[in-house]
Amino acid sequence: MPSINPQAIREGDRLALSKALTAVENGLPESQEIQAALFPFTGQAHLLGITGSPGSGKSTLVNQLAKFFRCQRTYGKTPKIAIVAVDPTSPFSGGALLGDRIRMQDLSGDKGIFIRSMASRGALGGLAHTTAAFATVLDGAGFDMIIIETVGAGQAEVEIASLAHTTIVVETPGMGDDIQAIKAGILEIGDILVVNKADQPGAENAARALQVMLEMGRGGGWERYPAGKHMRSGPHELKNPNPDPSLPTWQPPIQLVTATDGTGVEELASYVVDHKTFLKETGLWQIKESHRLEKDLEVLIQDLLLREWLDRLEDGQYEVVLKEVVTRKRTPIDAAQSLIRKIN
Amino acid sequence: MPSINPQAIREGDRLALSKALTAVENGLPESQEIQAALFPFTGQAHLLGITGSPGSGKSTLVNQLAKFFRCQRTYGKTPKIAIVAVDPTSPFSGGALLGDRIRMQDLSGDKGIFIRSMASRGALGGLAHTTAAFATVLDGAGFDMIIIETVGAGQAEVEIASLAHTTIVVETPGMGDDIQAIKAGILEIGDILVVNKADQPGAENAARALQVMLEMGRGGGWERYPAGKHMRSGPHELKNPNPDPSLPTWQPPIQLVTATDGTGVEELASYVVDHKTFLKETGLWQIKESHRLEKDLEVLIQDLLLREWLDRLEDGQYEVVLKEVVTRKRTPIDAAQSLIRKIN
Question: Would you state the pLDDT for residue B105?
Answer without folding.
Answer: 60
